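seq:
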Amino acid sequence: MLTRSEVRRIERHGISTFHDYWFNSLFAGEPYLEDGLLAYYDGRVVTLCGFPLRDVPTIKPSIYNRLAQKWVKERKAESIIFIGPKPVSLQALANEGLRLVAQEKRHRFAAELFIDCSGNPGSIFKRRVFRRAKIRDFQLTVRRGGMMSSEYFRLVELFYRQRELTGYLAEMAFALPAMLRSHKVHLIEARRNDRLCGFVAVHKPFVDICVGLFLATDNGINGVCDFLYAAMLDQAKHMGASFVNVGPSPSAGHYDFKLKWGGQPRVPPYYFVQWSRGKIARRFHTSWGPRLIRV
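struct:
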């Protein structure tokens, strides 16, 4: 459980999507802050975020091991997930009956990209791609989250049908209802002839950084992604942000699209490892929601 002072600290010094405790808690579990590091616990699995807050100068590798063992020994966690900028050895968990069940090396697409939305010289606001995107023949609507309408249900289902299901999309499916109904979230819509063609959800969990949470579009409509990115940057500036964290990328194409918009890596690529014991070690699950339905 986060205290009020810890919440304020995260708001002032958060930078990574993993510091966005409100959103991550929708599928990763209850948030905790220990030694400047975020952790999420869903009752069985602990996810340790190895990316420190901006006010933490350095993190010794031994801290990760100590925290992991603490969760296993004192709080009876059955599984430890570590996501951070560098590989760490959690071999000591073998003494507690855990074994290595999953591991993923870093790749450049997993870096979190940031886009300058401040309007300063040299930012994306001076780029031709921004001006071209804004003159697309879409109508723009911006509203706070609320009741999920039928057109949102339709578009989200279409979006999922057009893509291969990944662990991230499975997690997102569980988080979407709460996210779209939350007044914390701004929903930026692209419409053509009053038909919803796409939307992007964004909020501002940190003092100077907005986070793009989810973007859904109809693949059959050209230009809607660019239009939504331009509108998102305008909205983020209006909300008082200097940057938008548009997160990691699932593919080279997504990564290049964000680079086109001036994205710069400010959070290093992820290294992922999971140690587990007992029944939970028999099958890999990304988080609480997919584990419920054995995805």
